Known about the structure:
Layout: H1 5-15, H2 26-32, E1 36-37, H3 43-51, H4 57-65, E2 69-73, E3 79-83, H5 84-103, H6 106-109, H7 115-119, H8 122-128, E4 133-134, H9 135-146, H10 150-160, E5 163-165, E6 179-182, H11 192-211, H12 216-223, H13 227-237, E7 241-244, E8 252-255, E9 270-271, H14 294-297, E10 307-310, E11 313-321, E12 324-329, H15 335-353, H16 365-368, E13 375-379
Antiparallel strand pairs: 1-3, 2-3, 4-6, 5-6, 7-8, 9-10, 10-11, 11-12, 12-13
Amino acid sequence: MSLTVRQLALATLDRLFLLERRRLDVAEAVRRVCALQAQTPASPYLALWNRVQDFAPEDLDAAFADRRIVKATLMRITLHAVHAEDYAPYRAAMLGSLRGARLYDRRFTATGLTPADADALLPELAGFLARPRTGAEVENEVTGRFGEHAHRVWWALRTYAPVHHAPTGGPWSFTQRNAYLDSSMAPGSASASQEADTGAERLLLAYLRAFGPASAQDFARFTLLTRPVITRALQGLGDQVVRVAGPGRAALFDLAGATVPSEDTPAPPRLLPMWDSTLLAHSGPGRLVPEEYRPLVVRRNGDVLPCLLVDGQVVGVWRATDGGLHLTAFRKLGKAAWQGLTEEAEKLSTLLAARDPAVYRRYGHWWDKGLPEADSRIVKG
């Protein structure tokens, strides 16, 4: 039996706790959804608010503070929040991509330095980051060895070195002035390639548990790993992963024994944060974004706006404004859809009022530049 397009969307929603909020510890929730996009400090909080029953932001504050959840550059060379026990294998899987993206970029190669020059700094950097340091402090430290090139060397190292972002306070644990901390993981070993393959297998299992069924191309989109790495991971997992039939030409893979909701399963309304991983985990427009809305939701510079979900599909976007939330639908919505979105928006507005009523204000220019507004509401908590 072949899965339908809707079943694939429902599978993603179900596995990411977007069909029903679950009562879970925040660290376990992050583990179960593989990783949370964390480019903007607020996003992991709002992602968990959508997924965890009775979510308390203070619980995530504490998990970041005691490093049960860590924030680091990983998949797609962007910041993610991951369970602390997943960081090492995920980083092992991604290290080749992270190094290549920086050490072979012209911004680094123009310095005349080699990858070995940057690698040589790793042991010293680990000692310096035994306590949190700002980027400026690290650059000052690096200047002694690399002089005028210190900025570009640190630009490369902060992407692939084994470092976490350290909490700096503010409403969402991290501020725009980043601080860095050693991850206490050895920077490399003789079995680095084996570790990379083992890490890729673990990452693929976690990905399918959260986003499957999915294709190799989908996994590549989520991670930016290469085809040979993904092929080895699929082969290495053996019968833990099975092929399933789907609506397109691409082969779909899933965990052995995994289930998919029936087509008539209802999907409740949700207000997703910016860059929600749900919208970035599959090739093409993704499973939840209608093709005609993709340019509206994913802007030309890659910003992924906070989205409204109705019946499992993106129908518009939202932003904080005037002590409440402005909900913009790209098409006319029925009374039941608006009632559900309003109830969610009231709860979210209340949460934001206690933390950051103007969340994502840096991105308000996308609304100023114009978005289609077939229907809209302003909702206050």
